[in-house]
Amino acid sequence: MSEKNDTLSWGQKIGLNILWWICCGFAWLPRVVRHYVFGSFIYFILCYTTRYRRKVIMTNLRNSFPDKSEKELNRICKDSYKNLSEQIINTISQAGISDKALMRRTIFVNADQVRKEVNGGHVICITAHYGSWEGASTVSLYMPEQRMVAVYHKLQNKLFDELMKRIRQHTNVDLVTMQRTMRHFVENRNKQPMLLGLISDQNPAYRPNLHWHKFLHQWSAFFDGAEVMALKYNIPVYYYSPRRVKAGVYEGRLIRIYDGKEEVAEHEIMERYVRALEKDIIANPPMWMWSHRRWKHIPPKELQEIKF
C-alpha cells in the first residue's frame, strides 16, 4: 500500500475523485486518440504557446552537445517537447487500466533472465527521466516474487500528490517517499523480497562531500542512494533502458551494473549507471527530459579547471 497522505478536505476529496475519473476516462480512449490528438495538442501548447522552459532546455543542450549546430539543437529541443508530451500522456494513461494493458505498453524483453539472476532475492532497478520512466514500475508484473517499492518525490499540492499516487498504484507496488526509502527497506526486508525502483538523475541537495561524475561534457552530481543500499545489503543493481517502439509502447531492458557480490571501488556503481544513461541519451537525445535544472550546483574549483 502507498503511504498515507495528509488529510484532504471534503472539497479536495471531491476534486480528487473528479480528476481521477477524468484520468480513467482518458486512459480508456484508443491509443491513436490519446497520442495523436491530445498528444499533438499538448505538444503545441508546450512548444509554441508557453515555450515551456525553453531557455533551460537550450542551455542544457548547448552545454551537453558543444559540437552540434544551433539548427541541430533546435531540432532536438522540438523533439524533446514531443517526448515530454508523450510522457504526460503515458502517465495519465496508467489510471485505472488492467495489468495486462500495462504489460502491453511496457514490454520487458529480458525479465525471465533477470528473475533467474536475482533468484528471488532483493533487487534494485535504477532509472532516469529517459523515455517512459513511469513504465519502469511495470517490471513488478513480470517479477511477482519481489514486492515493488516505487520511490517517489512527494508533491507539495496534497490533491495532486494523492492523484499521482492513485495513477501510479497497481498490482504488487508500494509507493514510498524518498525520505522513507531506507527505513521502509529495513523494516520490511525480512517479510518479502523487494524490487526497489529509484530514479537517480535528479539534482541532489548540495553537500560538501558530493561526488562529481563526467556527464554530457559537464561535472554532474547524482543521487547515490542506490549504491549505498546495494553495498550495505549486497543487493544487485540493474539499469532500466527503455526503447520506444511507437507512441505509448516501449520495450524495457534491465542491464545489470552490479551483481551484489563484486568488490567495487567507491562510486563505481553510480559511475556505471552514469555511463549507461549517457550512452542512451547520446543515442537518442530527445528522449531525456532536458527541462530539468539538473546542473544548478557548481563543482569544486579544481574540477572546473579540468578540461573535458
The profile of the biggest β sheet is: 7 strands, mixed
Ranges where pLDDT stays below 50 over 5 or more residues in a row are none
In order across it, which strands form the biggest sheet?
1-9-8-2-5-3-4
Q: Give the helix level as a range of percent.
A: 40-55%
Strand content: 15-25%
Shape descriptor? globular
Distance between the termini: 46 Å
The overall average pLDDT, rounded, is: 94
User: Could you say how many structural domains there are in total?
Assistant: 1
> Given the helix and strand composition, which structural class is it?
alpha/beta
What Rg do the Cα atoms give? 20 Å
User: Got a strand count?
Assistant: 9
Instruction: Provide the succession of SSEs.
Output: HHHHHEHEHEHEHEEEHEEHH
The tally of helices reads 12
Description:
With 308 residues, the protein is α/β, with parallel strands linked by helices. It has one domain (10-304). It is 45% helix and 17% strand. The protein contains 12 helices and 9 strands. The strands form 2 sheets. It has a 7-stranded mixed β-sheet. Strands 6-7 form a two-stranded antiparallel ribbon. Helix 8 links the parallel strand 3 and strand 4 (173-177). The N and C termini lie far apart (46 Å). The model has no long low-confidence stretch (mean pLDDT 94).
